[in-house]
Amino acid sequence: MKSPLFSLSLIVCLLAASAAGQTQIDLRTQGKDVDFSGASSTKPIQTGTSLPAVCSVGQTFLLTSASMGQNLYVCTAANVWTRQGGAAMITQLGDFGATWTSPTALTIGANCGPAVSCNLRLGSTVYSFTQSCTANITAGSGTAYIYFTSTGALTIGHNVTLTASAGCFGQTGVTNFPAGSIPLYSWTATNGTWDTAGGLDYRAMLAAKRIAASTGLLAVDSGAATTLSVDSALVPTYLTVTAVLDFPSIANGACATDQSFTLAGAAVNDAVEPGWPSALEAGLIGTIRVSAPNTIAVRLCNFSGSALDPASATYRATIVRSF
Fold first, then answer.
1. Which of 41, 76, 78, 285 has the smallest CB count inside 10 Å?
2. Is residue 9 part of a domain?
3. Cβ–Cβ contacts within 10 Å for residue 232, how many?
4. Domain boundary among 146, 174, 201
């Protein structure tokens, strides 16, 4: 008869052998309705201080070296990580985002394509972009500033060494967003590589520009447009025009028939400052006046002592209407 101690040892050995023969379970294919809500902890996302160089679509990564709210990345294309900023931000500001693609490459406007273009409006002109562009850095430490110029050019201003692909332009010697530009992103670089967490998003979906009328100006809002005009109660109206006139021969002691030309805005009784030809013949005198709305009349009279045929010349009429 075997002792109880022997039996207990046999059971322990059998359990150990059984455990050693077990295989790991593939939860993806062998699990069913897996519920981890009761687990003491779960870590479904990879973590690290730098983004992996290789990824497949759908993979996620928590970049522990980045600040909160800017540290979650999703692999949106083979080996392309896209930083996530919340569903609302992705939906509202999908155009012209900058993405860390590799240590030496930034992709701008990854969502821009022939099927769905990214658009920029400056005044009444709309610029459409149907391709992304890439900023490839080769050397240097500093900051790249990604912006639109006032003429709609997608530009990467920088103080490092880089090349820009088709669709954008590189501009050296830039250390801030230029005046009048539309900022998109800034991105820092260290020793010839883009910092994984070096991007700052300057895009703005909501914006307003307030126009305040100063002394002498009036501002009238109508819908989305603001119309500026001169306040005639404070700013004098200035009208001027020139015309070439050729008077016929004028007998001594007589006046020629008035000759007229147009000055838009002129009103009867406006005071006119005459501008006479520099070579007006001696003995001729005249008047320049508003003879009818928008009409200037010039009269020449001859007091030279004999008939005169005035040469063709330029005459000027100027009206300054004060408040």
1. 41
2. no
3. 13
4. 201
Give pTM, 2 decimals: 0.52
Do both 118 and 134 map to the same domain?
yes
**Cβ contacts of residue 131 below 8 Å, gap of 6+?**
109, 112, 113, 114, 166, 167
Surface-to-core class of residue 118, CB atoms within 10 Å of its CB (0-12 exposed, 13-18 middle, 19+ buried) = buried
Q: List, for residues 153-197, the tens digit of each pLDDT value.
A: 999 999 999 999 998 999 999 999 999 899 999 999 999 999 988
At 59, list the tokens: 């993979």
Quote the domain boundaries for residue 275: 237-321
Q: Is residue 16 part of a domain?
A: no
Q: Hey, what are 125's tokens?
A: 């002109």
Q: How confident is the model at residue 6 (pLDDT cuts 50, 70, 90)?
A: low
What is the rounded CA–CA span in Å between residue 135 and residue 104?
8
Asked whether residue 56 falls in the same domain as residue 108, the answer is: no
User: How many angstroms separate the Cα of 81 from the Cα of each of 49, 147, 159, 185, 191?
Assistant: 14, 22, 25, 17, 21
The one-letter code for the residue type at 260 is: S
What are the start-end ranges of the E strands in 266-309? 273-275, 284-292, 295-302
Q: What confidence tens digit (pLDDT) does each residue in 276-308 have?
A: 999 899 999 999 999 999 999 999 999 999 999
